[in-house]
Amino acid sequence: MALVPSRFAAEDPLLKRFEAYILAEKNVSEHTRSAYMIDLAQFAALKWGDARAPYRWEETTEEDARAFLAGLGKSGASPTTVRRKLAAARTFFRFLQRERVVIDNPFSMLRGPRKAKTLPKIFSVGDAARFLERPAKDLAEGAIGEYAALRDTAIFEFLYSTGCRISEAVALKWGEIDFVRGCAVVTGKGSKDRLVILGSNAVAALCKLRDRVRRESPGLAADESSVFLSDRLAKISSRFVERRMKRYLAETGLPTDLSPHKLRHSFATHLLDAGADLRSVQEMLGHASLSTTQIYTHVSVERLKDEYARTHPRA
After folding, report:
1. Among this protein's residues, is 312 annotated catalytic?
2. Looking at CB atoms within 10 Å, which of 121, 148, 214, 257 has the fewest?
3. How many domains does the chain have?
């Protein structure tokens, strides 16, 4: 289908209402909204070909739903992608049931492929320390300026100290940090606020950054201003942080496929390795389900098994 998702939704009244519903009542992110529209456009292309909206969604059968699932399998889509697309269609038809457009949900009985259980890559404690020290080394060597070094140190210390998602970090405002208590309030998935703890290194890095901003651009140190800005003092994106991270990874000799999210994985694993309570880690990560957090216990066990195999004489 040639239509872009926004136009696709605009031409079908039911899709337009569904968009409003998931944004207002389901509180989904813009990324999820866009993905759902793409998924539904893909299904509409399979069902109606080049026909233009509005579509007769009530004509959709379980055979159509199974054909969609089969097509995803043949296209080589990953299990995660297939499950997401089925979830989009299932949610949409559940909405149509609520609106009394359809009686049955043709996707209700379909289940996607099982998601492969993969253990997340993480930093070792030593590698994390080396990585976090790299911006200061670049400054000392004259490779980057003072502001860039202070900002990069602060954002990576913040990510590793709190376990925050990168989107939560780039949205952080100065007024959301409590320097005295050593904590911050961040807005996570579903626009839910949570309290995160700042370690002493993260607090120190953030203090140095704010002092530098106050000296050069006092207005940008106000409570309502973003904490992390570009070299030109503009708002940064997640992609900006990823590029900065790849630079320091390469300079430190670490794999450049490690991402900011791996600092979140490392945060959780290192806490559990040191004996932290699983439910406390769940709360710090902002996971709705404990089962999501439990993958980090598997990481810890695997690390223990590797160490056992390396050191035990009869392993």
Report:
1. no
2. 257
3. 2
